[in-house]
Each structure stands twice: as C-alpha cells, then as structure tokens.
Known about the structure:
The complex is a heterodimer.
Chain A: E1 6-7, E2 11-17, H1 22-27, E3 37-43, H2 46-59, E4 63-69, E5 85-91, H3 94-110, E6 114-116, E7 124-130, H4 135-141, E8 148-154, H5 156-169, E9 173-178, E10 187-193, H6 195-214
Antiparallel strand pairs in A: 1-6, 2-3, 3-5, 4-5, 6-7, 7-8, 8-10, 9-10
Helix pairs in contact in A: 2-3, 5-6
Chain B: H1 3-14, H2 47-52, H3 70-88, H4 95-98, E1 102-105, H5 111-116, H6 126-135, E2 142-147, H7 152-172, E3 181-184, H8 190-198, E4 202-208, E5 219-225, E6 236-242, H9 249-266, H10 278-282
Parallel strand pairs in B: 1-3, 2-3, 2-4
Antiparallel strand pairs in B: 4-5, 5-6
Helix pairs in contact in B: 7-9
Amino acid sequence: MSILEPIPPTVLSVRRIHAAHPSLLRSYGADPERHASLGLVTCDQDDPTYVALDEATKHAKVDVVFAKSFYAGSAHASGRLSGEILGVIAAADPDEIEEGLRALVRCLEHDACFYRADEKGTVAVFPHVIASLGHYLSREAGLPAGTSMAYLVAPPVEATIALDAALKAADVRAAKIFPPPSETNFASAWLAGDLVACEAAALAYAEAVVEVARRPREDR
Amino acid sequence: MSSTRALMQVLRARLGAADPLPPPAPAPEIPPPPHYVFPSPQMMGRYAEKASAHTTALVGIGHVGTRYATDVVLQFQAELAVAHQAVATVLPEDWAASQGLIGLQSRVTSHRQFLLRPDLGRRLSDESVKALRDKAQKGVDVQPILADGLSAVACMGSGMDLLRHFTAACEARGWKVGTPMCARYARVWLEDEIGQEVGARVAAILLGERPGLGTGDGLSAYIVHEPRIGKTDSDRNMMSNIHARGTPPAQAAQKLAMLVGAMLDQRTSGVGLDLSSLAAELGDAAARAPRAPQQRVRLVEVKR
Lengths: 220, 304
C-alpha cells in the first residue's frame, strides 16, 4: 500500500420514492408544491457524497433537500446501511430523480473519494476540486453556480496545517471554513478561485497532510 | 477520469511514490439516447392521436424521457419564427396604390412606434384625413377598410381576396359600399374615425391578426355600427382566424355580410346585437356541430 491511493467509497443504498407523502416531503426540507419524488442515498464517505449530490443537480432538475453526516463516521454507524451520510434529492417527477441518481452514483464510483495520506492507511484526505459548482454547493458556499471550488477535508491537526498551506499556495479565498470537529470529527474548508488556483490549493493541501502524517511530532 | 485523481498522481510522483495506482473502476457504458419513444407504432390510433387530429393545439406530441421529441421542438421553433416574421414585416408604403386602393396611414411614424403605441394606431394622420375627404365616397351603408394590423403578411396575402368577396357580398344585398381603402400601421379602433369621416352606417376593418404559432397569415374582421370616435370593444362584433386552415375568405365574407345585415336591421352592434335568428341563415358557418378537424401544417419533417 502506498500514499495517495484512492479509497473508493461504498454506496450502501440507493432508493426512490416516486410519490412521497407531503408530510415526509416537508419534514425533509422539500416543497410539496414543487417536489413529488425523492431519491435517497447512503454512503460510507460523507464528503464525496456532498460532491456527488451537487453533481446530480448539474444533470437533472433535482434539488438537494436533505444531506447530513452521521456522528463519528461510518466506523460507528447505526446499521449496515447507514454509513456516514444520508443524502436526499427531490424533483417534480421520477424521471428526474432517476437521472439525478445516475449522475450521483457515477460521481461516487468514478470521481469523488478520499485518498490515503500515509502508507498504513490510518490518515485520510479529501483534496477534491470541483471545476464547476452545481446549484446545491454553490448555495451552501454562497458562490455563484459555475465557480471552481476546492473541497478540502482532513483530520483536525492535518487539516489545520494543510489549510494554511493551501491558502498560501494559490490565489484562492476561503468561501467557508469548518473547524474541527465536524459530525465525523474531521475539519474542512471550501476555497474558491479559478480552476488552476483551486488545483494548486488542493495539491498543496494534500502534500501538507502527507507531510504532517509523516512527521506528527516536531519536538522529536 | 477524475481530475482530482490526476492531480494526486502528479503529487505522488513528486513525493517519490512511483508505483502505479490501482486501475480506476471501469466506466459504465452510457446507453444511446432513445430513437423515438412516443407515439410508438403500438400507441398509434389511441385517444391522444385521435384528439390531436381535431386541433392544431400541441396535444398528442409525445415525449422522449421527460423532454419533447426533436421534431416537436423544431416544429415549435419554426412556427414561432413564422409568427415573429409576421410581426416584423412592414406593409410597403406603395402597396395600397398598387392594389388600386386609397392609401391611408395612422398617426404612427415607424414600425417600432406602431408596436409600442396602440393609441397612435387608432387615429388617422392629418394627410390621411385630407385624402379621405378628397377621394372617398360619403354617406355609404358599409365602409370596408383593409389594414395591416399586427400581420402585414396576412394583409398582403389574402387581404384583397377577403375585401373583394366582402364587397361583392354587400353589393349583392343592395347596399352602398364605400370606396375601397387600405390603412397602414392600423389598429382596430381606426375604423371609428374612418367610418365617422365618410359617414358610413357600418364600418368593417379587415386586418392582420396577432400571429400565433404557425399562423402569421390570419385575418380578423371587426365590424361596428354607427362608427364614432369613442366606441369601445363592446360595440364591435368580430370574426377571427380567417385563413385557409380556419375560415376561408370566401366563406368568411358571407358570414360578415350577414353580421352587417343584422346590424343594419337592428341599428346596433356589439353586445346589444341579437344573433339568435342568424343561426339558420348562416347555415354552415353558424352550425353548432363539431367543425371539421384542423390539420396541423408540418413545417419540419424528421426521419423516424
């Protein structure tokens, strides 16, 4: 096993509700006036799923109405299918949900994933670059849709040092910074800039995480 | 392939991890788009198809997934282009003279102004009032007025046809018909001033109607008894969709003449006009039975 190998996410469930009950729609943040169908996904990696949900909004007329990480991550899941996150997309008809789920699963299986930051696989990093934001993450980040964004996640100490490195490495600005602990005890940051700047920031971030993982104690 | 994965490969090389990454999961085959989904041959003859044969409205047009089929979209765009074209066309200044009509113009001076200022399109320019006083016959029973309205294409297309048939139908009933004339940049209410000027008992303006999808060639006729400036829409009777696929001009002219006849008899028009006795006289035109199906004119053909 070597560094920066992808850790492929496992999609644990993909389900649809063609005509959801209005009460259910409302309680999960959907609008019964505009939404009738739901698509539900659970996965053992939360941040790749947020990216994949956003990807779905670029392929179909769907809205991400619900997306929440579960406490302490997939190693402490409440059940075999719980994983680390439940994401819910809503649309006016089942065909849109179908198209959205297809894009979502494609993104999880072929694009967004964590990477190993050390040889033993005990530290994970998510240095993901989104070339063009869909309307879900753009709303969450307060950026215009179509902006490039670096979506950076690592464990607390690695994330702190790596974020500093990333901000200094390229002409990017912090759209949002989530200090530790997240629900899954990670820390993350969303950096915006042009695509090249986002890529440079993601590279610097991953490199710094690897460096911290290799030499955690500067006092020795 | 993931762009982030490509980035990580660069970084691995820089950090001295030269061994190749495990191969990415094979990308799934993306199925080709459906050739054409609906109406499939099995669906033909069903209710939607039967219903769609009775109207030019967009029903029974099928779908591909959640979208329209390509030929439907192309047809829609072509029909919209026909409508745009009709609105944008300007009646040439010398067209009236070339058809042997008195040429009149409203107070509008440009096509753009015509679209933006309906009020100016309802009054005659000073020169036109003068021309009307000089050339037009006064004290007539019926004054027909051809006009461009919102579709000069329709006016130039079947306008003369309708005017001739209408004039003939009126003369056959023994009425004194006014000098034929054609107004440019005209709105419906222009007939009030013209009719008042020539002292007509009834004024009928035949003008290009607001184009709809695929119908840039439709004419409408608005008829008013005792035309005076200040008459409103409730004082008028009208007939629309005068074109080959709707009511053909020859048939429309008969119906219009009967309307005029009713106005002359009852000395009123608009909401006050009682048309209940006309049903029998109008025959085919007033029949209550379902009208013959309108066939949609296909502007675009797509191989299926």
